Amino acid sequence: MRPDESKSLRRGSESVLTEIKLKKGESVEKALRRLKKKIDREGTLKTVRNHRHFEKPSEKRRRKEKAARFSAMLSARYADM
Fold first, then answer.
1. Picking from 13-22, 53-62, 67-76, which range would have the lowest pLDDT averaged per residue?
2. Exposure pattern of 13-51 as b/e (b: 16+ CB <10 Å)?
3. Half-sphere exposure (CA, 13 Å, Cβ side) for 51?
4. How far is CA 71 from the centre of its chain?
């Protein structure tokens, strides 16, 4: 892992936040885009959204089954291409 790329990890009560370092001559807008991409790749926002409310195990199972059915339908649709 490069020094300007750290993962969002939890150690006990401490948390290491996702961070990026500005490169020399880089605009803030470009750095923000890099940060957003990095957060998206790590799945940080998805995790935060999932923790906003409790999801019952049956709801979680149903959601996963629905996603599996959808991906199976897509793979069956494009299998002969």
1. 13-22
2. eeeeeeebeeeeeeeeeeeeebeeebbeeeeeeeeeeee
3. 6
4. 19
CA separation for the pair 45, 27 (Å, rounded) = 24
Spatial CB neighbours of 4, under 8 Å, sequence gap ≥ 6: 19, 20, 21
Render pLDDT for 31-65 as a digit per residue (tens, 0 to 9).
Answer: 999 999 999 999 888 888 888 999 999 999 999 99
pTM attached to this predicted model: 0.50
Dihedral over alpha carbons 64, 52, 54, 42 (to 10 degrees) = 40
What would the 3-class secondary structure string for 12-51 be? CCEEECCECCCCCCCCHHHHHHHHHHHHHHHCHHHHHHHC
